[in-house]
């Protein structure tokens, strides 16, 4: 795996190959499931995987009267975010990470960051909850913004949990075209936009 990229980037400036599968992770079980699903799709599509973790300073969410001791430094927060990203990648790929996987750490609001990295990608994969009616729950705020503004397909993958017999499989992703409410019956097929480069190793 290439070393995680960290730093401030100008809007629209993204260092990655076109045709990647972009995955947003936040340390949750659902985002881990999304990365695991994306890894399988990458092998089928002969694509690379760009794993993106966007983080924001905690101080923005603290009350003005919060004690200074409750406010971590920017470096502490960056290291914590890097640990979340590294742990998620290791959880899915183990200690030996293929070079077709790239981890990116970015400071900024999650939705705009993910939308920027998804430009020109095959698809954007996100995690979602696995509870609610028929095992589906409303997509979170970040997911909703991505669905509204993404120019590529967005796939929402639930965390693997036990569901009632009448519910869809917990690991079944829900894919919707960006900007539309219609659901796709299955993820995009591997018959188009296949990157001409070395595939991920099995």
Automatic annotation (TrEMBL):
Residues 21-158 form the UspA domain. Residues 172-202 have a biased composition (Low complexity). Residues 163-202 are annotated as: Disordered. Pfam families: Usp (PF00582). InterPro entries: Rossmann-like_a/b/a_fold, UspA. It comes from the Bacteria. This is Universal stress protein. It comes from Streptomyces ortus. The lineage of its organism: Bacteria, Bacillati, Actinomycetota, Actinomycetes, Kitasatosporales.
